[in-house]
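Customer escalation, tier 2.

The customer says the design service returned an amino acid string that "doesn't look like it belongs to this structure." They asked us to rerun it and document both sides in this ticket. The original structure tokens are below, unchanged.
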């Protein structure tokens, strides 16, 4: 794979214009030379090629150290209309194979007429990985709330790099790649966190945007603590929907004739697999008071002794809250991990129901559950990028006083998801990790075409309010999609796919509502 230098020495000094705009395509030494992608980064057979581009580590110091980001591209198969960049979300999700994995489900018109490009976000593997080594040689723990210890470990490999892992700098990387490719304007597709990245890009570089599609939106007013608190509440609604759907198909799956019966089977299985408190969700029509499962150790300690604020107690609670935010329940059994994935999209519902039925009949038969659980697995660098971005730019102060109310809610038999939301609002996910920057103000001023905003009504990861809020901030055109799929474009929903392609061709949005995507044939 050929290494490409974005800046010559003479041109590097001129790159200071990045602080207030974008670099002109003439500043690059040469267009990147695309070839083979890094091992393990893409699936073969989809025509994905990659290149490496050097960009400033710190855009305030364009003459300083450079980092490398890998870029993937699938060339248009027919007459080219333009280039469309994409980001799958996270923060912390790999992006290089975004288009390759979706070649077969994207509209043929898109594949024929657009170069499809993805920039691997800084800090991830294949983009100068954020390397934070502990003294014993292992990776430093994100727990404990001690940002100084984390920064010290990260700075050993590349001093100052941790502080540059922000959405703004990731957006500037994308614009540097645009310039290196010699493109005056680009279109963009962002899903989940990718919507926020796109909104930041549009706010920084509105004159560089041709069309922008934002699918399943972060609420720009909730960055970041409230976004993840609301995610807990949204997730509960989608689980109710999932249990109700399984009950409607009881003749096939035999997991219960009502949502409550399905839920009761689910919670027994979760507890048997060690789920404990993670399985304590208020069932559709019933109360939490009689559910099995004990509090996790940090909550039990606070319930017994109160919140002391000690470093040890803070570290334990911080790790728990990080787990809640990331939905990272894999250590609590494959059922919970698979349930988390199934809540994202109805595409998984038939497979999940079958996997749950298999495990109910034979508790040792969890292979299907593990396969679903692993569908959204990310590299370990993703955990550090997630923490760096959300803590470096978190604009919502933590509220330690809600810790007590969260535990009281659980102890009194209340909705555990509400308690989980309050634990997130406590701010313990970042602890003493103070923000290093303020989020970019989201605005649609200067955009030549209004963005297209897609949002499911019962989205389990980005609550519905995020769609209207993003649309207002960018003066976008909102399409509300029924159901709760996280990610709507390229899921077999022909109404949505047609609307997106019409928008990419004309800039016009002709609908405001759409039904949810059909389920795959079982």
């Amino acid at each position: 794979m050929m290494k490409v230098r974005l800046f010559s020495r003479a041109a590097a000094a001129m790159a200071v214009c990045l602080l207030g705009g974008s670099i002109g395509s003439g500043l690059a030494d040469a267009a990147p030379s695309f070839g083979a992608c890094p091992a393990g980064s893409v699936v073969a057979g989809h025509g994905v090629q990659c290149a490496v581009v050097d960009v400033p580590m710190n855009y305030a110091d364009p003459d300083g150290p450079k980092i490398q980001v890998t870029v993937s591209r699938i060339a248009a198969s027919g007459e080219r209309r333009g280039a469309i960049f994409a980001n799958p979300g996270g923060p912390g999700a790999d992006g290089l194979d975004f288009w390759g994995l979706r070649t077969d489900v994207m509209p043929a018109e898109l594949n024929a007429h657009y170069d499809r490009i993805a920039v691997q976000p800084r800090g991830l593997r294949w983009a100068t990985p954020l390397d934070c080594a502990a003294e014993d040689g292992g990776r430093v723990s994100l727990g404990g709330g001690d940002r100084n210890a984390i920064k010290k470990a990260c700075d050993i490999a590349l001093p100052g790099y941790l502080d540059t892992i922000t959405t703004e700098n990731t957006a500037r990387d994308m614009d540097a790649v645009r310039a290196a490719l010699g493109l005056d304007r680009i279109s963009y597709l962002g899903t989940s966190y990718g919507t926020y990245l796109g909104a930041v890009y549009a706010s920084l570089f509105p004159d560089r945007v041709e069309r922008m599609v934002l699918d399943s939106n972060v609420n720009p007013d909730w960055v970041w603590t409230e976004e993840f608190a609301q995610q807990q509440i949204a997730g509960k609604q989608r689980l109710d929907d999932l249990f109700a759907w399984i009950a409607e198909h009881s003749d096939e799956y035999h997991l219960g004739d009502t949502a409550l019966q399905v839920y009761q089977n689910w919670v027994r299985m979760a507890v048997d697999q060690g789920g404990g408190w993670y399985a304590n969700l208020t069932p559709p029509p019933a109360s939490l008071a009689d559910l099995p499962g004990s509090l996790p150790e940090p909550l039990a300690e606070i319930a017994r002794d109160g919140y002391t604020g000690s470093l040890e107690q803070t570290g334990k609670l911080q790790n728990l809250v990080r787990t809640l935010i990331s939905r990272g329940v894999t250590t609590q059994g494959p059922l919970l991990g698979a349930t988390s994935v199934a809540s994202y999209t109805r595409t998984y519902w038939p497979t999940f129901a079958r996997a749950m039925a298999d495990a109910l009949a034979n508790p040792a038969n969890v292979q299907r559950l593990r396969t679903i659980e692993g569908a959204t697995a990310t590299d370990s660098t993703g955990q550090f990028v997630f923490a760096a971005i959300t803590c470096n730019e978190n604009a919502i102060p933590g509220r330690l006083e809600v810790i007590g109310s969260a535990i009281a809610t659980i102890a009194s038999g209340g909705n555990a998801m509400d308690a989980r939301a309050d634990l997130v609002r406590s701010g313990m996910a970042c602890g003493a990790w103070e923000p290093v920057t303020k989020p970019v103000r989201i605005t649609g001023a200067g955009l030549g075409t209004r963005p297209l905003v897609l949002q499911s009504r019962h989205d389990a990861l980005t609550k519905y309010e995020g769609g209207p809020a993003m649309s207002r901030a960018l003066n976008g055109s909102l399409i509300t999609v029924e159901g709760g799929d996280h990610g709507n474009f390229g899921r077999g929903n022909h109404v949505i796919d047609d609307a997106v392609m019409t928008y990419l061709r004309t800039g016009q949005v002709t609908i405001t509502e759409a039904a949810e995507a059909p389920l795959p044939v079982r």
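Tier 2 assessment: The sequence is consistent with the input. The first strand starts at residue 3 and ends at 4. Strands lie at 3-4, 49-56, 66-74, 82-87, 114-119, 186-192, 209-217, 452-456, 477-481, 513-514. Sent an explanation to the customer and offered a walkthrough call.
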